[in-house]
């Protein structure tokens, strides 16, 4: 497959969260600034945006975050943020460990379970670090891509399956970067269009690394 052909394919294939001509009560959840780790017993704000069909911000919801680590469980209600559709949760994980966070939007069944987040002890000397591919994997979940697309490297991906599968697709890095910076470089040709999620340069770089990573073929 030529690079030119891949570029022509991209707008139809790389629709992460998107607006679809699709009925039903589902939404994407986009975490604004995904931390590598938090410190146990020290509050840290986690902001996220809820968009109906990946596009329309939803206000006046009552989202909650459930956090679990072994037998420990906490549930925290979100408050409205400043931007449309934005909510903020004050995370305060009670013990060090690997915590699983599930954001329940309270818009129909729409929720997302993030990849485990480590809570360190105060003064920890070795906070966790991630490779670009690992960080891109985490962002694929946290930014809402998991809702619309199947990716066989990502558990529970393709919850509504309105976008194409991305597991085997590869694209030119520079074009993917420009497309994620500004999806309007390719006008929509049908009812679906990619919203601009205002991704930061380092987030885009990590997503590109994950999407284009070489993988062992599954048997």
Overview of this protein structure:
- Helix 2 crosses helix 5 and helix 4 (173-181) crosses helix 5 (201-211).
- This protein has five helices and eleven strands; from the N terminus they run H-E-E-E-E-E-E-E-E-E-E-E-H-H-H-H.
- The two termini are 23 Å apart.
- The protein has helices at 3-13, 132-142, 145-148, 173-181, 201-211, and strands spanning 27-31, 37-39, 44-52, 56-57, 64-69, 72-77, 79-80, 86-91, 97-104, 111-113, 117-120.
- The radius of gyration is 18 Å and the shape is globular.
- The chain has 219 residues and is α+β, with helices and mostly antiparallel strands.
- Strands 2, 5, 6, 9, 10 and 11 form a six-stranded mixed sheet that branches. Strands 1, 3, 4, 7 and 8 form a five-stranded antiparallel sheet that branches.
- The chain has two domains: 3-23 and 132-211, Cytochrome c-like domain (Cytochrome Bc1 Complex, Chain D, domain 2, Orthogonal Bundle); 27-120, Macroglobulin (MG2) domain (Immunoglobulin-like), CATH 2.60.40.
- Strand 3 and strand 4 form a beta hairpin.
Percentage of helical residues?
10-25%
Can you summarize the main beta sheet?
6 strands, mixed
Instruction: Look at the structure and give the mean pLDDT.
Output: 84
Structural class: alpha+beta
Quick one: CATH class of the largest domain? Mainly Alpha
Instruction: Report the C-alpha radius of gyration, rounded.
Output: 18 Å
**What's the helix count?**
5
The CATH topology of the largest domain, please? Answer: Cytochrome Bc1 Complex, Chain D, domain 2
């Amino acid at each position: 497959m030529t690079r030119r052909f891949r570029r022509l394919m991209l707008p139809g294939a790389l629709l992460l969260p998107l607006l679809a001509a699709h009925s039903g009560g589902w939404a994407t959840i986009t975490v604004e600034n995904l931390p590598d780790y938090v410190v146990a017993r020290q509050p840290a704000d986690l902001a996220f945006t809820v968009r109906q069909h990946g596009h329309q911000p939803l206000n006046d919801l009552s989202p909650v975050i459930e956090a679990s680590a072994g037998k420990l469980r906490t549930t925290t209600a979100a408050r409205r943020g400043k931007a449309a559709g934005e909510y903020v949760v004050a995370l305060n994980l009670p013990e060090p460990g690997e915590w699983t966070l599930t954001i329940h939007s309270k818009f129909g069944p729409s929720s997302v379970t993030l990849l485990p987040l480590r809570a360190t002890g105060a003064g920890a000397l070795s906070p966790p670090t991630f490779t670009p591919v690992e960080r891109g994997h985490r962002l694929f979940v946290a930014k809402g891509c998991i809702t619309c697309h199947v990716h066989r490297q990502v558990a529970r991906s393709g919850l509504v399956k309105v976008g194409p599968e991305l597991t085997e697709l590869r694209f030119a890095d520079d074009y993917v970067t420009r497309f994620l910076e500004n999806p309007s470089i390719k006008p929509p040709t049908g009812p679906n269009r990619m919203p601009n999620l205002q991704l930061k340069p380092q987030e885009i770089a990590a997503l590109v690394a994950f999407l284009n990573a070489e993988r062992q073929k599954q048997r």
